[in-house]
Design a protein that fits this description.
This protein is mostly helical. 66% of the residues lie in helices and 0% in strands. It contains 7 helices and no strands. α2 crosses α4, α4 crosses α5 and α4 packs across α7. The longest helix has 33 residues.
């Protein structure tokens, strides 16, 4: 009986240690994104800035489409994904001097903000919504990648040069 109790304690210790390591990893990633860059603002600060600047450009239809596009993301991470994608879309629209957020802006931001490992799910969702993503095939190379991290600025600059 004592052996079983000791093994349960050892097992519980490893489970708790594993969960703390996983949580620490995600907290550290968030911490790194919050660190200021050369200009004094972090990636998240700029993301929030672009969202606030472009808020008048978002109509109900574009907000509904964004909500539909992030619906496959697990609920725990959905708000973070939505903010990340909305930040990319907003930056692209502001750079182009748009008067409103269009499907073109949403597609560009959605593609570059979605990690490459999730492209299969993204394409499935776009097919379900009957949205043609073939005109944007070249943008998949600029999508977020775990091996090669792009900043919001590098991605949108590459997209801007694409349309010229």
């Amino acid at each position: 009986m004592n052996d079983i109790f000791i093994w349960l304690i050892v097992l519980w210790t490893f489970i708790m240690l594993g969960l703390m390591i996983i949580g620490g990893y995600f907290m550290f990633r968030k911490f790194l994104k919050k660190l200021p860059r050369e200009d004094g603002y972090s990636e998240l600060d700029w993301q929030d800035h672009y969202i606030q600047q472009a808020l008048p450009l978002w109509d109900e239809e574009s907000k509904a489409l964004l909500n539909e596009l992030v619906s496959p993301v697990p609920e725990l991470f959905r708000d973070v994904a939505k903010e990340r994608i909305a930040g990319r879309i907003s930056k692209i629209a502001l750079d182009e001097g748009a008067r409103e957020i269009t499907l073109d802006h949403i597609m560009k931001g959605y593609i570059i903000a979605t990690p490459k490992r999730d492209h299969k799910f993204m394409k499935k969702k776009l097919n379900e919504l009957e949205i043609d993503y073939t005109p944007y095939e070249d943008l998949f190379q600029y999508a977020d990648d775990e091996k090669q991290k792009f900043s919001i600025f590098e991605q949108t600059e590459k997209i801007s040069s694409r349309s010229e």
